Amino acid sequence: MSDTEKNTAAGAQVENVDIHFEPVVKLQDVEVKTHEEDETPIFKMRSKLFRFDMENKEWKERGTGDVKLLEHKESGKVRLLMRRDKTLKVCANHYITEDMVLSPNVGSDRSWVWNVAADLVEDEAERQMLAIRFGSSDKAN
Predict the structure, then answer these.
(1) Most Cβ neighbours (<10 Å): which of 11, 40, 69, 135?
(2) Sheet order of strands, 78-84 included
């Protein structure tokens, strides 16, 4: 028998072995709440979000993902929620108010700019100037 035949025969024996490991710790199922359960999505589209850094006077990317407008079933309030792709970390979370003005971004036909009085990211409310860019001008309009 050649070396190749011996290795193949030995490999076939290893493949037929059924290996089973018992878990050391049993984990319980945990119910995860996104706090979107009481809201109805009225808009959803993939986009990229930027925030304006006042100190350096430049736009900084905050994340890429699906931006959603969610309407609360009881109060009727609408909020903007955006989570980053893959990590699902919140990169924008604020109510849409009457005093917000959505204006087109200068130099781009597929992005919009607005000011937020209290954007709740990482449980911290802060005033922000945000811009959102969509994949095409058709999607932005």
Answers:
(1) 69
(2) 90-95, 78-84, 58-72, 39-53, 124-134, 111-121, 103-104
Backbone angles phi, psi at 119, to 5 degrees: -95, 120
Distance of CA 20 to the CA centre of its chain: 37
- Phi (first) and psi of residue 23, to 5 degrees: -65, 145
Q: Beta strands of the chain (E only): which ranges?
A: 39-53, 58-72, 78-84, 90-95, 103-104, 111-121, 124-134
At 92, list the tokens: 């924008």
CA atoms of 95 and 99, how far apart (whole Å): 11
- Residue 116 CA to residue 67 CA, distance in Å, equals 15
Model confidence, pTM: 0.73
For residue 75, the tally of other CB atoms under 10 A from its CB is 10
